[in-house]
Write a structure and sequence with these properties.
Number of domains: 1
Radius of gyration: 17 Å
Number of strands: 4
């Protein structure tokens, strides 16, 4: 009896750690974040090198596909945290540089776009 109870407790505890596939809303939000990057006039820095928006988008798309295969990006917030914030290899934070604005962490840039997507729906550049 005790082993069944222990097993059930473990299942309940681990169920909170298992991610599911992204919902349609999450997929639309993540697509919207990628589109915001492509539509921007910003550059994206990873590991000390600046990249254009399309190259950055391709890189983030590859990271997102990797996470999808492992059920690790079921929300837009997890996409930002696990794909769009820092290098998986070096751990260095990504940066975004937009004309007329100070350089900012990519995580902050993507979070602002996510808020805009969820709020007014108006694009933020």
């Amino acid at each position: 009896m005790l082993s069944r109870l222990t097993f059930a407790t473990c299942l309940i505890a681990f169920s909170g750690l298992v991610s599911a596939a992204p919902s349609q809303t999450a997929k639309r939000e993540i697509q919207g974040l990628m589109d915001a990057l492509s539509a921007s006039s910003c550059e994206f820095q990873r590991n000390g090198t600046w990249h254009g928006r399309e190259e950055a988008r391709r890189h983030l798309q590859r990271k997102y596909e990797y996470l999808l295969k492992r059920d690790l990006a079921d929300t837009a917030e997890l996409f930002i945290e696990r794909a769009a914030s820092k290098s998986s290899l070096s751990g260095r934070a990504y940066q975004v540089r937009c004309p007329g604005q100070p350089v900012q962490p990519a995580a902050a840039w993507f979070k602002a776009r996510l808020e805009a997507l969820r709020g007014s729906g108006a694009p933020v550049r």
